[in-house]
Amino acid sequence: MKLIKLAVLLSTLVAASFAQASFSNASFENNNVSGGYLYAPQVVATGWSFANGAGVSANSTAWGGITQSGNYFAFLQNTASISQTFNNTNAANLSFSFDLAQRSAWNNGGAQTIDVLFDNQKYASFTPKNSLGWDTWGSFSFTVNNVNAGSHTLAFIGVNPLHAGDTAAFLDNVAVNVAPVPEPETYALMGMGLVALIAARRRKMKAA
């Protein structure tokens, strides 16, 4: 019985060391667009904030985009921004992934660049046209190490590097992969529990 209790304790400690984080409405499917498209401030998509020419579009509207999955995607026109605040339960390394596409040139469009910020600090910058061409989706990613537990914000910012009258990139399928970073106290408790488990098992074997 004691061995079972110790094993349960160890499993509880291991589970407690795992961090969890996820995005609400990662593919922008939950929205008020109703088959067309909307800009901020009219657009509403659960979990997300939009500003300065950002919004959500359905497939095959005047925006021209078609998602790889689902029926909706977000767009960042010129210096638009899209962000979401989420909760990370424990210390972890967070790997973010998302899909981007460059809208075909429009007016004097040129290529859009998207800066990605984590807690207001720039971690990555992507120009999807450079690797994908026009109207082609591709996956992009970056990692932030040693993220503390608590509330954090991921933001996508349009740069419009050529100061174009109209340039835009599409965004979809935002996800985060969590690699837990156990606290030192957790390692210590797990070590003590493991030693106790081994000692108890040895005593049981000797008694037999």
Automatic annotation (TrEMBL):
<dbReference type="InterPro" id="IPR013424">
    <property type="entry name" value="Ice-binding_C"/>
</dbReference>
<feature type="domain" description="Ice-binding protein C-terminal">
    <location>
        <begin position="180"/>
        <end position="203"/>
    </location>
</feature>
<protein>
    <submittedName>
        <fullName>PEP-CTERM sorting domain-containing protein</fullName>
    </submittedName>
</protein>
<feature type="signal peptide">
    <location>
        <begin position="1"/>
        <end position="21"/>
    </location>
</feature>
<keyword id="KW-0732">Signal</keyword>
<dbReference type="Pfam" id="PF07589">
    <property type="entry name" value="PEP-CTERM"/>
</dbReference>
